[in-house]
Design a protein that fits this description.
The chain is α/β, with parallel strands linked by helices and 470 residues long. The protein has helices at 5-12, 16-23, 26-34, 62-65, 74-85, 98-111, 124-139, 156-159, 165-168, 186-194, 216-229, 282-288, 306-321, 324-343, 369-381, 385-398, 422-439, 445-456, and strands at residues 41-45, 48-51, 56-59, 117-121, 143-147, 178-181, 198-203, 232-236, 261-264, 276-280, 349-355, 358-363, 400-401, 403-404, 411-414. A hairpin with a 2-residue loop joins strand 11 (349-355) and strand 12 (358-363). Bound molecules: pyridoxal-5'-phosphate.
């Protein structure tokens, strides 16, 4: 019998966790079971997911920011089907693919900067690897400066720019000559740049782990300092780009911060096909591809794949057709201001910050004696535990999918699809407020549940493995 996808799915429905435990990542499958996130999803549309039992969920994670346009977008899906049915040849390699040229043209137009060349990748990490190599070759310098708490991916070079030791530990020597600076601190950046030999400063304008938002002044001053010291200013917009913050690029909130390179990925795919791009100034590209015999000195097999290029073109057009930038800004402001109002009533919430639909909810030690004692006890069990006291009831009781922003983090990150509606905002805020009520009731069932998880399974303070999110 020939391959039949639907039959395969039907015959194996519900085997997800057994298969993963046996063949893929038993630790992750165990974590998902432990925190009750071990659902089998069957259908997705826009901001919503359905499990095999037909329960509907609100997706505030969007696959860590790949579904900006909403899941199962009909236009992007149709574009991909059209491409597949067209028998267009792809990956000929010894040709110049039309669709790649068109996508490059469109990305340049939307960025609006003087970035004349585009290099296509398949992932965000590959974009960062490209930026590291190109910056070193173009400037003839070696050091790459990055910000504390940064996340640029998990391949060797990108990992060398990672602000968290848990990702780096135990993997041996990484790419050398990298240097961390404090975020939003131009003096610290200048100190690093003044040491000389800095090829580039790579920064996320909104950090995916800390949810810190670079100020306009900081970004503009960083660009000025990079120029002064002959380093490139590189914006990693893998997560903050493609409309996420209400602009095509988050950097566009700081109009005078003109980058030398911009790295994109995630939602350029429309969620469907891996695709990334590095936009750069012409002269950088010319230094790398400097002669005929260096014409393919940097490349990867799937870099300009037809499906990826179609996904990119259709997803960019959809940003306009669905007015997603404006919706990201207005829904971000609505959700952010409603969460700020909730914050004033609950002392565990320390900060709500957002740019468009990239939102951080930060928790911290409360003032009142009983709650402070609960905070200390739970954190003594595991630094990862407190936020699960928010994400677990949000999921179990309100069917809202969220996660912490990183290991040992006290921040929950909301990065929903940009088509989030007012009723989704109501769904989230009503559920969140009830969860806050439960968390501020000590002793109470939320705390008992957390202590049980902490005692039985989650790693103790000082140990490493956790249910982190990217
Ligand atoms: C800012 C940023 N850069 C790079 C990456 C790595 O992207 P990928 O997972 O596609 O390699 C991520 C992933 O979350 C990211 O958020």
């Amino acid at each position: 019998m020939s391959f039949n996808l639907q039959n395969l799915l039907d015959e194996n429905a519900g085997r997800n966790y057994a298969l993963h435990s046996e063949h893929i990542n038993p630790q992750f499958a165990k974590v998902l079971r432990l925190i009750g996130f071990d659902k089998c999803y069957d259908r997705a549309q826009g901001t919503h997911l359905w499990d095999l039992e037909g329960n509907k969920y609100l997706d505030m994670l969007a696959g860590y920011g790949v579904w900006n346009h909403g899941r199962s977008h009909p236009v992007i899906r149709k574009a991909l089907i059209d491409f597949l049915c067209s028998d267009q040849p792809g990956l000929i390699q010894m040709e110049a693919p039309l669709l790649a040229g068109l996508l490059a043209e469109e990305l340049k137009r939307r960025s609006g900067y003087d970035l004349g060349r585009v290099y296509f990748t398949s992932t965000g990490a590959e974009g960062n690897e490209t930026a590291i190599k190109f910056a070193r070759r173009a400037t003839g310098k070696s050091q790459i400066v990055y910000a504390e708490n940064a996340f640029h991916g998990l391949t060797n070079g990108a990992l060398a720019l990672n602000g968290s030791s848990i990702f780096r530990d135990g993997f041996g020597a990484l790419v050398p000559d990298t240097l961390s600076v404090r975020f939003n601190d131009p003096d610290d950046l200048e100190k690093a740049l003044a040491q000389g030999d800095v090829a580039a400063f790579i920064i996320e304008p909104v950090q995916g782990k800390s949810l810190q938002i670079a100020t306009k002044e900081y970004l503009e001053e960083s660009v000025r300092l990079c120029r002064k010291y002959g380093a490139l200013f590189v914006a990693d917009e893998v997560q903050s780009g493609i409309g996420r913050t209400g602009r095509f690029l988050s950097l566009q909130h700081a109009p005078k911060a003109e980058p030398d390179m911009v790295i994109l990925s995630k939602s350029l795919s429309g969620g469907y096909v891996p695709v990334g791009a590095v936009l750069m100034r012409d002269w950088i590209h010319e230094k790398v591809f400097s002669s005929l015999d260096r014409a393919v000195v940097h490349s990867s097999t799937f870099g300009q794949g037809g499906l990826a290029m179609v996904a990119g073109l259709a997803s960019l057009q959809t940003l306009d057709d669905d007015a997603l930038l404006a919706n990201a800004e207005s829904m971000g402001d609505l959700l952010g201001s409603r969460l700020s109002a909730i914050k004033s009533r609950y002392e565990f919430i320390k900060d709500i910050r957002w740019q468009g639909l990239m939102i951080g909810i930060e928790f911290g030690e409360p003032e009142s004696f009983k709650l402070a004692a609960a905070w200390k006890t739970i954190n003594a069990l595991s630094a990862d535990l407190f936020c699960q006291g928010v994400t677990i009831p949000l999921f179990e009781d309100h069917r809202i999918l969220t996660q912490v922003s990183g290991n040992s983090s006290k921040i929950i990150k909301l990065i929903p699809p940009l088509c989030l509606s007012e009723s989704d905002v109501d769904w989230f805020c009503d559920g969140f407020e009830q969860v806050m009520e439960g968390l501020h009731t000590f002793p109470g069932p939320v705390w008992e549940g957390l202590a049980r998880i902490g005692r039985n399974a989650l790693p103790r303070r000082g140990s490493k493995a956790t249910a982190n999110s990217l």
